[in-house]
């Protein structure tokens, strides 16, 4: 592995793993949830709030930062860490998800993905080499290969075509990454939900050699059962001594079940997106603050949680803010959700360390199911 980038596996409990990813900008405790900061901001939160929740790392998006303000512009201002005021690790995805989500304004060739900007109509070419160049300019600690992610459902033929292209792009991405001490380059396993394709993809990436490996192409409509079975059939082909990152996942239950299957790292827009729409994630399960039953409830979301958004504001007030369309309500619930996700990850890490992950998993799911019945 690169001189200053490494992964230490401290403890296993069944298939669940507790470890540390060591990077130029600090350590990442795993299992880890990475709040999504697409354009250099975790929506609705100050970055010191994000750090205060216990987050070790955030995620930025290569495609969106390429469009605005531009990678060269960020580099001239000292790189992404300096630009946004975050001194800790940053992972940047490569634009592969946008190849799927923006399919109406892009074209794929062997060389690159060609995009027409949704901002001003300008045309951009995102090749594996350019994707890695952008990430180098941004200065991120973990840089993802460019890949092709496809929607579900799909044919086996389409899944194999995208997987093989992703493998060829992985090799080009790896060469373009070069040597960056303290920074890591992750390959992305594709192949839809097909066991044969997932094995071929994982084995191909291992032969290239990366600092870490991601499982891509999931949480795109296949449902939790198929997602989890695909994780199980994929992780057996990934090396034990490298971090494993499940891209774009997910709900607290998705995370808990994926940890049980050997995943180390996660990201998802769900905590902040749900917060903006009035939904809180708590140890009591999901709470919809738009619901009228909260209008006169003086209790906070969780009186025992250290985050003020969870413990210091009444449900009645949060309900009022959300129903009134106030930005403060969206901000508080986004903060509360990121805080809950991070406390869930800390609980998972502690449980793995003490060999009680199975009990923690069961108790957590039972508490979500019981919920929090109002008096």
Map the helices and strands.
Layout: E1 6-13, E2 16-23, E3 26-30, E4 32-35, H1 47-52, E5 58-61, H2 62-67, H3 71-76, H4 80-84, E6 90-93, H5 96-101, E7 106-108, E8 113-116, E9 123-126, H6 128-138, E10 142-144, H7 156-177, E11 184-189, H8 195-208, E12 212-215, H9 224-235, E13 244-246, H10 252-259, E14 265-268, H11 270-276, E15 279-282, E16 285-288, H12 308-311, H13 315-323, H14 327-353, H15 357-370
Parallel strand pairs: 4-14, 5-6, 6-10, 10-11, 11-12, 12-13, 13-14
Antiparallel strand pairs: 1-2, 2-3, 7-8, 8-9, 15-16
Helix pairs in contact: 6-7, 7-8, 11-14, 13-14, 14-15
Keywords:
eight-stranded parallel beta sheet; alpha/beta; 375 residues; TIM Barrel; 42% helix; three-stranded antiparallel beta sheet
Overview of the molecule:
By secondary structure, the chain is an alpha/beta fold. The chain has two domains: 241 residues, Alpha-Beta Barrel (TIM Barrel); 83 residues, no CATH class. Helices cover 42% and strands 19% of the residues. The strands form four sheets. It has an eight-stranded parallel β-sheet with strand order 4-14-13-12-11-10-6-5. Strands 1-2-3 form a three-stranded antiparallel β-sheet. It has a three-stranded antiparallel β-sheet with strand order 7-8-9. A hairpin with a 2-residue loop joins β1 and β2. α14 packs antiparallel against α15. The chain starts with 5 loop residues before the first strand and ends in a 5-residue tail after the last helix.
